[in-house]
């Protein structure tokens, strides 16, 4: 292991089957309206956390929530977790505004997300 881990989970994406119903539940839970509201993604910013709702699990086909660790260098962190035994599910790619995301699968089949803002 190199360095200390100073970045944490700040983003959790949830696959949903009915975006309108899920949006109402999360708005009630968080006590705020969504800051991003589209037909393909609804996002809430609450207490320094980003909670995202992804209809049908999105193009990556999520079947359970995925937590995203915010990292300063996504390629370096990918190399580190792959060397430690993780397998790439989704290679690093841009999702807009210079934000890069990637997912890996740990030895037990859990999906872990990595996120880098530029």
TrEMBL record:
Extract the Pfam families matched here.
Glyoxalase (PF00903)
Q: Which PANTHER family match?
A: GLYOXALASE-RELATED, VOC DOMAIN-CONTAINING PROTEIN
The protein's name in its UniProt record: Glyoxalase
Q: Which residues form the VOC domain?
A: 8-117
Under the heading InterPro entries, the entry gives: Anthracycline_SecMetBiosynth, Glyas_Bleomycin-R_OHBP_Dase, Glyas_Fos-R_dOase_dom, VOC_core
Q: Looking at the record's lineage, which domain of life comes first?
A: Bacteria
């Amino acid at each position: 292991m190199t360095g200390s881990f100073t970045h944490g989970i700040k983003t959790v994406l949830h696959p949903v089957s009915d975006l309108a119903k899920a949006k109402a539940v999360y708005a009630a839970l968080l006590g705020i309206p969504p800051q991003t509201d589209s037909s393909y993604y609804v996002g809430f910013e609450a207490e320094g956390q980003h909670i995202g709702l992804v209809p049908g699990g999105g193009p990556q086909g999520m079947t359970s929530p995925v937590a995203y660790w915010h990292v300063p260098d996504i390629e370096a962190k990918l190399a580190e977790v792959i060397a430690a035994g993780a397998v790439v599910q989704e290679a690093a790619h841009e999702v807009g505004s210079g934000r890069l995301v990637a997912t890996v699968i740990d030895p037990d089949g859990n999906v872990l997300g990595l996120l880098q803002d530029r």
